[in-house]
Structures are given as structure tokens and as C-alpha cells.
Specification:
- The protein is built from 14 helices and 20 strands.
- The chain has 581 residues and is an alpha+beta fold.
- The strands form 4 sheets. A 7-stranded antiparallel β-sheet has the order 2-1-5-4-3-6-7, with helices on both faces.
Length: 581
């Protein structure tokens, strides 16, 4: 007779139950947070760990956050050891001891059963304010992490069910938007309470021994699946690099993430040893973020049904020498690591993998280019913080599929939701003037990239602090095309002062916005995959009729002649154009 902990049906039931708990924790956060960053964009991840800190289940709404969460919990375990009690809750964001960047705050609750620590219920999310001199956590002028906000080592914020007022006040006294931050922290703590409650229900039904056995089998299954996926990649070394426009301090220097992937049987190594030394500015990537970025790019290219847990990451090693942009020495600034640096890492991974498994990798995704803004909303009388998620670009194409339009940057793998424009106007002192797909923004290919957008808004109050951050503003950082595919367009930011003329502005810089100013974002589409002249003619004509591709681009990029008025195919001219290539 099969032991109940190895019965495959029971293992699947328990696995789905654990996944469901992380999902319910996330839904709780969506419904109880006042922060648009949580409610509209789902900029967080929810996780369950074993008592000894192994990741068992996760809903990684934003993968770059989810992949870094195990490092944060390990820091909590290392700090407190056996000094963990029922009713405790812990907080953490220290980038140089298991964190990613300061805005991503981890909340962790131990779950006990009959006096024994058996689980941890955790979440990690981007908070709108962590103090310092930045805007919603981003400080393009910072020269060390201390300028970026409050650094929280592993700390007990609730002790045996009672809030530690000293820790609570220490944190909230260092932020500008106290009511918002307080509500978000309560939301995160409440979500872990939901996780604890559901885990206790599961323990009551099955008992710890059965759940532990099923968890072990889930970890082994994920490890087997990942090893099988790695074994499908030919053994060898595959190299690639990717640039970041600048670090906000030295605007003339482009920083390089260099990667060598080594595949040997069923194991894989990501080696960032040849990357540039750490930067002066805020693009340095903490080790947790570098590992998470490499993982999300790999798992975005292999079987999507693999559970991301401790077993799944066991066959993968990441090498990132200290002192490089992929693992800086403290107290380097790191606020932008989850965005432009993560995107560069993902691009390098996909380009390297295209040398081995081109049919499974991605062309370049649009880099993040919209700003963070913060100020007082006169309509509500409250502070606001905005990351302008309406300005998302397009994803890269893959073999057999066009990219997704207006999806999200690669650090989220499509998990970032687009805010409702009307709710966005309620939360912020802005009037949305334009949000539309941008024709010809995507790289052409046999499969074209997803479209980018033009996003423009008018400022309705004075004294709004704006921090631009991101990459993709030069040809070298535009979304790369693969196997003959064309790159996406170069992005741009334009600021028109009230009564003035439009002016292109820089990324990774501070600006002050006042009433009547108009800000416009041109976000790139994704890179194309494959020779554009292999794209079926009927798809090019369809794209022209839908306004996705202009007749000029159809001719120049795809070798397809389309009448500019009727949008009908000019067959003879098309035959001549394609025969000439």
C-alpha cells in the first residue's frame, strides 16, 4: 500500500493547497492595501517556507521580488535562530544582508503546530515610501544606500502577538507618507495571518508528517523537472552581455553586465565574473536580485508549469564576485537594481540561451522608462506616490509567437497589471491626455515584438517631485532582435513646461513638475524574432490595416507593398521586393 505522503494524488492535492494559500494571501493584499503599487500593479510576491527556511510554494506576481524572498528569510533565520515564538512577526529590507532594494520590504510570520515551528508565511512588496532622498524608493543621485532610505536589518516587529511600538515608530518616523506606509505594513502583516490560518487548517486535516512528506516529494519533483529541462540544453559555454545606459552619476558611462552560462549535463551555472565593477550610482545589483534575475529569465524560457521552489533552484548555481555591478560592496546604492539591472541580466540570459536553444528563448523586452513621482494631491489632501505603470512597453517575440503589446518589463514577466486610467486620475493630480499603442515601435521579424505606447499626462498641481529611472534610451540598449529580428525603437521622455516648448529629458535624473507641465513617454515595443521577410504577407497586411505597422515599415522592414490608402496588398510589387532580398 502506498504511503500517504508519497501517494501522487495526495501530493498534488497538498501542493495545490499550498499554492492556493499563497494566492489567497496575495488576494488579501490586493483587497486591503491603500497603495496603488499593490492594488493596481500587484508589485509583490507571497511565499510559504518550511520551518527551516526552504521555499515550498509561491505566487510570484512580480518574479524579481519572488526570487529574492528566500534570501530575506534566511537573514531572519540567521539573526534570530531559535529565538522565534508563536505570535511573532518579522520585518526586513537590508540589501546587504539578503534584501534586494530598500522599497521591497519582507514580512515573515512563523507558524507553529503543537509547539514546533513548521512553516513560515511571508510576503515581500514594493512600499511607496522608505524615506531617504528618493521618490517612491528611487534616488538617481544617491552615492550610497543610506541616501536611499531606511535600512531595516532582520527585526521583530510583532512579539508574541503584541506590536513592538519601538520598531514600528522607528520605521514610520523615517518616512514622509506615514499613513500610507502604516496601512501597507498592516496589509502585509494581515496577509501572513491569513497564511497562518490556512496552514493551520491544512495541518488539522492532514497532520505535519503527511504535509512534510508531500512537501519533500514536491521539492524532488521540481528538481527532477528542472534537471530534465537543463539536460535538453546542449552542454557547453554560452556568453552574452547587455548594457545599462548610465548610473545617474556618470552619464557618459554605460555599464556592462557580462554573463557566461555553463551547461554540464543536468546542472547549470550563471557566471557574472566579467561584469563591470560596481557603479557609483543606484544601478548596482544585490546578490539576491542578481540570483533572482537569472532565475526569472531561465524559468521564463523553460516549462512554465514547473513550481518555483527550493527544489527547482537546486541544480542552478549563480557566481557573482563581490565588488562587481552584480554583487556590490556595502554601502553602494542599489535602488534601481530590480529594474534596469534586472532587465540587462534577463536580456543577457536570453541572448546566451539563443545560442543553444533559440526556439525557446525571447527577443529583447522593452526596458522600463517611465518615472516615479511623488507629492501632495490637492483633491484628496493626501500624499501620493506613483510609479506610472501606464507607460509599459512591449515584450519580445519568441519562435512561433508575436510579442505581447504593452505588457511589462522583463523583471515582471507580464505580472505587472496596467492601472485603470480613471482610478489613476483619482489617486494622482494628473490628467491623462493620451495612452495608445505606438505603431512601428516593435522590432520586425518573422514574429514581431509586442507594441510599445505613447503615454502623456498633464500635471494639475505644483511641487511634484519626479525621478526618472530606467534604460533603453540609446540604440545599444533598445530591445534586441534575435535570429535576424529587428530591435525595438529607442525610448524617449519629453517634458513640456507650461507655456514652453517640448524638451527631451534624461533618464536617471531629478525634475520638479508644476501645474500645466506635460510629460510624455515613448515606450518601446519588443524585439523581433527571425527574418522579417519570412513573415507571412497576410500578417503584414493585417498589421497595416490595424494600424500596427505603417505602409512604409511594411515595405522597408518586411518587403511587403501595401497601398497607403486602401491598405490592400500590391502583389507584384511585393513579389519584386521579396525576390530582391
Amino acid at each position: 500500500m502506498t504511503h500517504p505522503t508519497t501517494d501522487p494524488i495526495l501530493v498534488a492535492v497538498i501542493g495545490n493547497a499550498l499554492d492556493g494559500i499563497t494566492s489567497e494571501m496575495g488576494e488579501t493584499m490586493l483587497r486591503t492595501s491603500r497603495s496603488p503599487i499593490f492594488v493596481e500593479a500587484r508589485d509583490f510576491a507571497t511565499s510559504l517556507f518550511s520551518g527551516d527556511g526552504r521555499l515550498l510554494a509561491q505566487t510570484h506576481y512580480i518574479p524579481v521580488i519572488g526570487g529574492a524572498t528566500p534570501f530575506a528569510l534566511r537573514s531572519i533565520l540567521d539573526m534570530f535562530g531559535d529565538d522565534v515564538h508563536e505570535g511573532d512577526v518579522f520585518i526586513h529590507n537590508d540589501p546587504f544582508d539578503g534584501g534586494s532594494h530598500l522599497p521591497d520590504i519582507t514580512i515573515a510570520r512563523p507558524v507553529f503546530w503543537e509547539g514546533e515551528l513548521v512553516f513560515w508565511a511571508t510576503n515581500k512588496g514594493h512600499n511607496a515610501d522608505v524615506g531617504g532622498g528618493g521618490v517612491v524608493g528611487f534616488h538617481p543621485g544617491a552615492r550610497d544606500v543610506l541616501e536611499e532610505g531606511i535600512r531595516i536589518p532582520a527585526a521583530r516587529i510583532v512579539e508574541r502577538g503584541e506590536t513592538r511600538r519601538d520598531i514600528w515608530e522607528l520605521i514610520l518616523s523615517n518616512v514622509r507618507m506615514r499613513p500610507l506606509v502604516e496601512s501597507v505594513l498592516n496589509c502585509q502583516i494581515g496577509a501572513t495571518a491569513i497564511g497562518e490560518r490556512r496552514l493551520r487548517d491544512l495541518l488539522t486535516k492532514y497532520g505535519p508528517a503527511v504535509i512534510d512528506g508531500a512537501s519533500e516529494e514536491l521539492l524532488r519533483a521540481s528538481a527532477r523537472q528542472v534537471r530534465q529541462e537543463i539536460a535538453r540544453i546542449p552542454d557547453g559555454e554560452y556568453t552574452a552581455d547587455a548594457l545599462i545606459d548610465n548610473d545617474g552619476i556618470d552619464r557618459d558611462r554605460h555599464y556592462r553586465v557580462a554573463l557566461t552560462i555553463r551547461v554540464d549535463g543536468e546542472s547549470m551555472v550563471f557566471d557574472f565574473s566579467d561584469s563591470d565593477e560596481q557603479a557609483q550610482g543606484f544601478i548596482n545589483s544585490t546578490l539576491a536580485n542578481t540570483v533572482s534575475s537569472a532565475h526569472l529569465a531561465l524559468f521564463g524560457a523553460i516549462d512554465p508549469d514547473i513550481r518555483y521552489n527550493d527544489g527547482a533552484i537546486e541544480p542552478i548555481e549563480v557566481i557573482a564576485p563581490a565588488g562587481t555591478i552584480a554583487n556590490p560592496h556595502a554601502p553602494a546604492p542599489v535602488a534601481a537594481c530590480t529594474v534596469p539591472t534586472c532587465e540587462a541580466i534577463a536580456s543577457a540570459v536570453w541572448v546566451a540561451l539563443s545560442q543553444a536553444i533559440p526556439e525557446r528563448t525571447h527577443a529583447g523586452w522593452a526596458r522600463w522608462c517611465t518615472p516615479a513621482t511623488m507629492g501632495m494631491n490637492p483633491r484628496t489632501g493626501r500624499h501620493f506616490g506613483d510609479l506610472h505603470f501606464l507607460g509599459k512597453g512591449g515584450s519580445g517575440a519568441t519562435e512561433g509567437f508575436d510579442g505581447w503589446d504593452h505588457l511589462s518589463p522583463s523583471n515582471t514577466l507580464g505580472g505587472l497589471r496596467t492601472p485603470d486610467p480613471e482610478l489613476h486620475e483619482l489617486d494622482t493630480p494628473y490628467l491623462l491626455e493620451e495612452l495608445e499603442y505606438l505603431p512601428d515601435s516593435a522590432g520586425g521579424g518573422q514574429w514581431r515584438g509586442g507594441l510599445g505606447v505613447r503615454y502623456r499626462w498633464r500635471v494639475l498641481t505644483d511641487g511634484v517631485t519626479c525621478a526618472t529611472y530606467g534604460s533603453g534610451f540609446m540604440p545599444e540598449t533598445a530591445p534586441v532582435g534575435l535570429l535576424g529580428g529587428r530591435p525595438g525603437i529607442v525610448q524617449s521622455l519629453t517634458l513640456t513646461r507650461a507655456g514652453g516648448e517640448p524638451e527631451q529629458i534624461a533618464s536617471n535624473a531629478f525634475y520638479t513638475l508644476n501645474e500645466g507641465d506635460v510629460f510624455e513617454v515613448i515606450a518601446s515595443g519588443g524585439g523581433g524574432f527571425g527574418n522579417p521577410h519570412l513573415r507571412p504577407v497576410e500578417l503584414v497586411v493585417r498589421d497595416c490595416r490595424q494600424g500596427v505597422v505603417s505602409p512604409e515599415a511594411a515595405r522597408e522592414v518586411y518587403g511587403v507593398a501595401v497601398d497607403p490608402v486602401s491598405k490592400t496588398l500590391l502583389e507584384d510589387e511585393t513579389a519584386r521586393l521579396r525576390a530582391a532580398v
